[in-house]
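One chain given next:
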Amino acid sequence: MTQTVFDEETGQQLEALYRISDVVRRRALVRSFLAAAAGDRILDVGCGPGFLCVELQQEVGPAGSVVGVDASPAMLALAARRCDGQGNVTLHRGDATSLPVADAEFDGAVCVQVLEYVADVPAALGELYRAVRPGGRVVVWDIDWATVSWHSNDPARMARVLDAWDDHLTHPSLPRVLAPAMRSVGFQDVRMEPHPVATAHFDPGSYGVAIIPVISSFVSGRRGVNGNEAKAWASELNELGEHDEFYFASLQFGFHGTRPS
């Protein structure tokens, strides 16, 4: 199994993906869950191209601060360009299981669609717990990829493609065990909120349309899906869109937790 490599090419794909309406809406939900206030110190674990860092900086204002951590130099380079001129945003290279931050340094932390790629989830959750102060809050957001439902006239091919796509991460259905995992490292008041991402229109701003080329590129040559089959899969979805027969649905999950005071 070869997971997604977060290099320059992937970074460019993610920059485009993070601008679509479904992902903009997701960031708004994450920010509302976290409820950052002016003057807060916020940590973004797996900050990627830095979209959320900039938006959080606007919420905490000049008296607050935002620290973004990512393991990918390519992602950090994109984030640095996006956050240029924001004096209260700091970026660090680091792993989710060994964060380069002090104990109890933050009022809140976010970790959006990151832990599904991390082999040692308890260690990463332990680091989030360590990083926030007593009474600090965290928001962890991930997808259960088994909930993906895509209309296709070739369901067997669809199943093969989605099976190959599971190789892009470590935990395809991480939300199923996240709540007890958060409680086990000490978080209290752990709550989960499901958020459907669905469309019956071929809208380029929707998640189900925007990820088609990403998936087609990744699955080609994996688990018996050859290049022609991957292209045929993507072509069929585009054709369904042209005939107004497109359908996509999946569930994403926001988890909230608090470090006890």
Notes: The domain at 8-145+170-198+253-258 is CATH 3.40.50.150 (Rossmann fold). The first helix runs from residue 8 to 17. The mean pLDDT is 94. The beta strands are 41-45, 65-70, 89-93, 106-112, 132-150, 188-199, 248-258.
